[in-house]
């Protein structure tokens, strides 16, 4: 009787984030021979970044992804490649993302770069990367009766006095709903009255330079949560509108962008 081949434990990588937005990977690979690299492959795209792995203490290999290395927005699956062997998928080890929780980038480069390592449902290591230029960071969300108030900060551009916010129906080509914004240096705030919105999904945008400037998606990126949708949840309000009764509330999308969901209720 032929015995099944023994299962090989996956290689694991410990990850540490620094306040500048860089990542360090420590891979447990005792006995590995030959040049080794940590490879990040962008999912659904023919693109990869190769980082040399150098020996450190206790037979571990270390690779660094500094904030100065460009990592386009997307999900990057992590592999280790030793010598001429086929790349092997990495599993997550210990992760230290404490520096991300209090990170406040300067925005002097005109963009905000965020990289958050996380474990996939299959138990593999992936890095979620965002690269926004400029960026509108959502901060506190205040919910009161039939209204949402959004407080935030802009990075990589200036806020003009005629800045405003837009709500756009994701699945309808109609005009955006415009909302006035309060401006305090780089900080902004605005309110959304649910009664103004028809049933649907409304994406929130900021026009930091007014009508003549770019439209910037409002998102929450500057923390250590890779997928906020199942983690940051908010109560929904029942509101009477000219379109009938609805239930409405904010949520974060799979990309951590901020939206408002409006659902029609049976009268």
Could you characterize the architecture of this molecule?
It is a single chain. The chain is 1% helix and 52% strand. With 267 residues, the chain is mainly beta. The strands form 2 sheets. Strands 11, 12, 13, 14, 15, 16, 17, 18, 19, 20 and 21 form an 11-stranded mixed β-sheet that branches. Strands 1, 2, 3, 4, 5, 6, 7, 8, 9 and 10 form a 10-stranded mixed β-sheet that branches. The longest helix is centred in the middle third of the chain and has 4 residues, at 98-101. The chain is elongated, with a radius of gyration of 22 Å.
Brief characterization of the structure:
The chain has 267 residues and is mainly beta.
Task: Break the fold down into its secondary structure elements and pairings.
Elements: E1 12-17, E2 23-28, E3 36-42, E4 48-55, E5 60-65, E6 74-82, E7 88-89, E8 91-96, H1 98-101, E9 112-119, E10 125-132, E11 135-144, E12 147-155, E13 164-169, E14 177-180, E15 182-184, E16 187-193, E17 200-207, E18 216-219, E19 237-241, E20 244-252, E21 258-264
Parallel strand pairs: 1-8, 11-18
Antiparallel strand pairs: 1-2, 2-5, 3-4, 3-6, 4-5, 6-7, 6-10, 9-10, 11-12, 12-16, 13-14, 13-17, 15-16, 17-18, 17-21, 19-20, 20-21
